[in-house]
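Backbone geometry tokens:
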Amino acid sequence: PEDLLARISKAKNALLLPHELDNGFDDKDPAVLAAVYDLYERQLKLNRVIDFDDCIFKTALLLKNNPEVVEKLEQRWTHYLVDEFQDTNFAQLYILELLASRYKNICVVGDDDQSIYSWRGAMVETLDRFETTFVGTRLIKLEQNYRCSNVILNAANKVIRNNTGRKNKTLWSASTNEDPITLASHVDDVAEAKWISLKIFGLLGKGRRPREMGILYRANKQSRAIELALRENNIPYKVFGGTSFFERKEVKDFLCYFRLSVNPNDRLAFWRVINTPSRGIGMKTLERIEAKALEMNLSPFEVLHQGHVPLDTKQKVAAKHFTDVLKSIQSAPLT
């Protein structure tokens, strides 16, 4: 299914309907794809929904088949600014050409060296096509880099200039930093994270401030091993642009279950997980559990386990399973 959805997405990005796939569309089996694509569209229509690609696809078809709509939009919007232009696909470029060709008041910002969305239909060739479509385009190269040293930029320039179909450019920086690049290979992510952590630990010992260091990673899932390694060395850190592994809801829930299995008197842990997953125990019942715990000088967990608060049949079954599981963990050997 994922493969077929990706192929349908590719067809929509090319502005092709199911019956148009035999017109030279690049696919391993256009006939099968056309049949599945047609069924998929009928199912969408039956459910009165559109998919993500339809947001652009149907807009492009609307403009293509209704020139009066294009004319109204041209009158309403006469200037356009597009960022990350290297990530546009054919359908997006088609819409832009329809709307901006009349007045040609358009500015795009893009870098063909940063085109990483080809899997989503993005075409690095859009930069060349733009200059062809909008004749007289003025090209301004922004080659000064404010993020990296010349050591990093020189290495990047040597690698990226081997790419074909790119506009020639040479990045440079005013930075005087000459720290060399270190390329390290490790057996797995855990070993890599430990190496990073020890490097940071050593730099801190030499007087470097934590704010002078940063760890960049491509996907949030990579943070787990790194965070564990930093915690093992008592290195403080802050996660930007995402959620720390230990701040994720499911991780907090798991840790509270663990805390409660070790210490049934942990009230905060109990209140967090008593309805995670939902056990149908409402707020009024929870308030009665709390009141009875105060009255009997017991933990809320023990009040629930010993049955001091009346529950309906469904709640009793859920509560018994909850407390029995935790009790069995509490009595299990630590080894």
